[in-house]
Amino acid sequence: IDNATAGDTINVGNGIYTESIKINKSLTLIGTGYSNTTVIDTNGFSAINITADDVVIDGFDIKFFGTHAIMIKEVDNVTVKNSRINTTQDERLGIWICGSNNGCHPSSNIFIDNNTVLINNKATGIYADNSNPAHSNFYVRNNVFEAPNLGVNVELYDVDTAFVTGNTFGKSGS
Fold first, then answer.
1. What pLDDT is attached to residue 23?
2. CA–CA distance, 125 with 87 (Å, rounded to integer)
3. Distance CA 145, CA 173 (A)
4. Cross-strand partners of 142
5. Per-residue model confidence (pLDDT) at position 133
6. DSSP per residue, the chain
7. How far apart are CA 90 and CA 111, in angstroms?
8. What is the reported pLDDT for 153?
9. Is the alpha carbon torsion for 115, 171, 71, 78 positive or negative?
């Protein structure tokens, strides 16, 4: 990622990658499918930290032990698709969209499509933080959510125009 140019596509081969990924430029990151390409964050704040517009994450298994699997902060046009996100501990967030509640400007045009979100313990699958002005244009489509314990599937605060369609919400503990 450090050597990529904005707008590049990076194909990530099969394997287990134990690191935190910071994306601060427009990129498309393509794994070989969530049964083959795994990102495990062992110590960081987020497994994948997105702070640039026009980013695509496609085809990863994201396991994390930090606060968020994916952090989306002050961006437009971000897509997370065809991936599996697995929360591992209490009070963790699968996908967190930072808002003014935490000092961030709102995000817009966020696409979360065709993912499996496994929410273990007391955690949340997708969480859009409070924001003033509001976030806008969120698309949460064709995902599968499982929250068998005390988890919450989706919490979208202060989002103007949210489309939540075609999702399967499994057992939720809340």
1. 96
2. 8
3. 12
4. none
5. 95
6. -TTPPTTEEEEPPSEEEES-EEE-S-EEEE-S-TTTEEEEESSSSEEEEE-SSSEEEES-EEEESSSEEEEE-S-EEEEEES-EEE--STT-EEEEE--GGGT----EEEEEES-EEE--SS-EEEEE---SSPEEEEEEES-EEEE-SS-EEEEE-SEEEEEEES-EEEEE--
7. 25
8. 84
9. positive
pLDDT less than 70: residues of the chain: 41-44, 88, 90, 171-174
The pLDDT of residue 17: 84
Residues paired with residue 61 on neighbouring β-strands, in sequence order: 38, 84
Tokens describing residue 113: 């499509």
Residue 140 near residue 168 (C-beta atoms within 8 A): no
Phi and psi angles of residue 100, each rounded to the nearest 5 degrees, phi first: -65, -20
